[in-house]
């Protein structure tokens, strides 16, 4: 926590450092490098010039830019700054006239020759106006960049809030959808084997704990997600006949990494919802692998149309639709999803790859 005050006051340090470097180079280093002893009144003019530029910088930064430039009153912004620049030059001209700076500087550079009044050299006044303009220009640039950064921060926070709200909505839809299908499966099982139905309820209770506690978080451990999928597959096996051939390959141990909870389940759930038949031989293939930071999921199954009188038949595919949206929100540009549902083998194939870090 000791670095917090430094981070908080970092912009102030930058301003002080910038002015110190600018003032040292323009008002100190060059005069000192001339190896001449400059009179006190000349140093007073240097201090006055620096002070006026300081005022112009922050007056433009805190007043003119917000009041005129950011409110799209651009002509007024330029008019006020032009008048301020002219006033800056006239103040320095008045200083020179009042203290007779022409004679003072003649004494410094030509001490052995008499001073003769000459018309004023406006080159230095034009130079002073450009120095003023440079100060105001830098002030405007910094204020504009800070405004852009602040607006961008607000925009990103707003976008993040929208994403979080949408993710919460999507998860709220997926979870009931999952339990809706699972409970329907257990209901069907009670008509076949009560003991298997009891075993299924025990597995479902363990899965419910995962859903209740892990899906409240944005991320969970991959090992927990895979354990959840294994429980789901085991639960589904209880209702399958011998005509369904399973090829399930889920690694027992993986290098831990975080993943969004219940992100893979809808693809696997879809296999069991549409890939089995009570009248025909069928197969389901599920392959999950992790190499480095890349997680791969491959599923393959026959396509059977569910009866329209069942909850599965009436389902609108909300699980897969929401999962695709969650992938877009959580892993933008970090995943690839290929779905092949139109082929001569009448099979449904999913090939998903996610870069988790």
UniProtKB/TrEMBL annotation:
User: What do the Gene Ontology cellular component annotations say?
Assistant: membrane
Quote the SUPFAM superfamilies the UniProt record gives: ATPase domain of HSP90 chaperone/DNA topoisomerase II/histidine kinase
Coiled coil segments of this chain: none
Q: Does the keyword Transmembrane apply?
A: yes
Where are the membrane-spanning stretches? 12-30, 50-70, 77-95, 122-145
State whether keyword Repeat applies.
no
Q: Which domain of life is it from?
A: Bacteria
The UniProt entry, under Pfam families, shows: His_kinase (PF06580)
Protein known as: Two-component system sensor protein
Species assigned in the record: Mariniradius saccharolyticus AK6
